[in-house]
Design brief:
It is a single chain. This protein has eleven helices and four strands. It is mainly α and about 300 residues long. It has one domain (about 1-300). It is globular. Keywords: Cell membrane, Cobalamin biosynthesis, Ligase, Membrane, Transmembrane, Transmembrane helix. InterPro entries: Cobalamin_biosynth_CobD/CbiB (IPR004485). Converts cobyric acid to cobinamide by the addition of aminopropanol on the F carboxylic group.
C-alpha cells in the first residue's frame, strides 16, 4: 500500500506541477551523459559499455546510498520525488494538445511546428493526416517510455528501479541510433533499453487493449508488431492503434527522404481527435494500473 500511495502522490505532483521549469534532473543527466561521451567515445562496443556504466550506474548507486542512510520518512519522500521526475504524463499532454488544437484550427504550419517538438521526423513534409499520425504515435509510444515503464519498475524495485529505467531510456534517446557515430558506441544504451522495456511495453500494450477495442488491438499486436523495427515500440503502437481503431505507421520522412514503415492499426485515418483519444487511452490505462496495484495490495494484506 505504501507503493500505491507513492504512485498516487507522484502522479498528483506530475498532474499539478508538470515537469520542473528551471531545472529538471534529466536535463542534468543529459549534460552528464554528453560529458561522458566527449571523453570516452570510440567506435567500438567496449567504449560504449564503459560510458553506459559511468553515466547510468554511478547516479543509481549514489541514490541507493542516499536511501540507505536516510530515515524512513525521508526515504518515502525521495521515492515520491524520483518517481515524479521519472514520469512525463503531464508533459505528454502539454506537447500533444497543441498539435490537436492546430489541426482543428486548420493551421498546418503551426501543427507541423508543434509535432516537431514530439518526433524526430522531417515535419515540413507532412500533411495534416501525417501530422495527426505522428502525434498519435508519439503519445502511444511515450505512454510506455514516460509513464508505464517507470511505474512498472517502481512497483518491482521501488525508486531505484524507476530511476534506472528512466536513465536508460533517456540514454537510448541520446546514443541509441544506427549511425556511424553510435552504431557501436550506442549498442549498450540501445540493448539495455530493449531489455528493461520488454515486460512493461507488453503490459502497456495489454493495457491499451483492455481500455479500448480489445479484439482489434490484440489482432494488430499479433500480426503487425513483429514487422516493426523496435521490439518494444511495435507492440505498444500496434495495440494502441488497434484499440483506437485508427491507421498509423506507413511512410514517414527522415533525413530528407521518405522511409517505408509497416502499417499499424486499422480503421479511420488519424486526425486531431486521434491524438486526444490517445491521451485518454493512456489516462484510462493509468487508472487501471492503480486499481490493479490496490487490489494486489488488499489481497496481500487480507
Amino acid at each position: 500500500m505504501t507503493t500505491l500511495l507513492a504512485m498516487l502522490l507522484a502522479l498528483a505532483l506530475d498532474a499539478v506541477l508538470g515537469e520542473p521549469r528551471r531545472f529538471h534532473p534529466l536535463v542534468g543527466f543529459g549534460s552528464l551523459a554528453s560529458a561522458v561521451e566527449r571523453r570516452l567515445h570510440a567506435d567500438h562496443r567496449l567504449a560504449g559499455i564503459a560510458a553506459w556504466m559511468l553515466a547510468v550506474l554511478v547516479p543509481v548507486a549514489l541514490f541507493c546510498g542516499l536511501r540507505a542512510v536516510s530515515p524512513p520518512v525521508l526515504v518515502f519522500a525521495l521515492d515520491v520525488l524520483v518517481l515524479y521526475f521519472a514520469l512525463g504524463r503531464h508533459s505528454l499532454g502539454e506537447h500533444a494538445r497543441p498539435v490537436a488544437a492546430a489541426l482543428r484550427d486548420g493551421d498546418l504550419p503551426r501543427a507541423r511546428a508543434a509535432v516537431g517538438r514530439m518526433v524526430s521526423r522531417d515535419t515540413g513534409a507532412l500533411d495534416a493526416t501525417h501530422v495527426a499520425a505522428a502525434g498519435t504515435e508519439s503519445v502511444l509510444e511515450n505512454g510506455h517510455d514516460a509513464v508505464f515503464g517507470a511505474l512498472f519498475w517502481f512497483i518491482v524495485f521501488g525508486a531505484p528501479g524507476a530511476l534506472l529505467f528512466r536513465l536508460v531510456n533517456t540514454l537510448d534517446a541520446m546514443w541509441g541510433y544506427r549511425t556511424d557515430r553510435y552504431e557501436r558506441f550506442g549498442w549498450a544504451a540501445a540493448r539495455t533499453d530493449d531489455v528493461l522495456g520488454y515486460v512493461p511495453a507488453r503490459l502497456t500494450a495489454l493495457s491499451y487493449a483492455a481500455m479500448g477495442d480489445a479484439v482489434t488491438a490484440l489482432r494488430c499486436w499479433r500480426t503487425q508488431a513483429p514487422s516493426w523495427d523496435s521490439p518494444n515500440a511495435g507492440p505498444v503502437m500496434a495495440s494502441g492503434a488497434g484499440a483506437l481503431r485508427v491507421c498509423l505507421g506507413g511512410p514517414a520522412p527522415y533525413h530528407g527522404r521518405w522511409e517505408e514503415r509497416p502499417m499499424l492499426g486499422e480503421g479511420e485515418l488519424p486526425d486531431a481527435s486521434s491524438i486526444v483519444r490517445a491521451l485518454r487511452l493512456v489516462d484510462r490505462a493509468v487508472v487501471a494500473w492503480l486499481v490493479v496495484v490496490l487490489l494486489v495490495g488488499v489481497a496481500a494484506h487480507a
